Amino acid sequence: MLGDALERLRDDDDRLALLTVTGVSTDPDLRHATVFLASLPTGALPALEARRLALQAAIAREVRLKRTPTLSFVADPAIASGERVEEALRRARHDDS
After folding, report:
1. Looking at residue 68, what DSSP letter applies?
2. Which domain range does residue 24 map to?
3. What is the total count of domains within the chain?
């Protein structure tokens, strides 16, 4: 749902191109949600913040909640961690050769 909303907004703002939602974490009371993205290119965060209300409205149209969570956007730390592991494996493989 959030990925689809982002995709629709990409047509109006090139800074939102190539963003992939990897996960969402919500507070127990659902007042705040952190959206994890595979990467956060330069210019993407200000564009996301500018479109935050539109994204929250898209969520509100799809789910029935008393309040729609306030969204914040961050780069997914698991992606960076996975890239470091892959690099270490490549180095180990290269050292064995």
Report:
1. P
2. 2-96
3. 1
- DSSP secondary structure string, 78-96? HHHHHHHHHHHHHHHHHHH
Q: Note the Cα 26 to chain centre separation in Å.
A: 13
Q: Is the predicted pLDDT of residue 19 greater than 80, yes or no?
A: yes
Question: How is residue 39 written in tokens?
Answer: 């990467």
Which residue's structure tokens are 């703002």? 13
The structure's pTM equals: 0.79
pLDDT at 50 over 90: yes
Position 18, amino acid: L
Query: What does 11-43 look like in DSSP terms, one character per residue?
Result: TT-GGGTT--EEEEEE-TTSSEEEEEES---TT
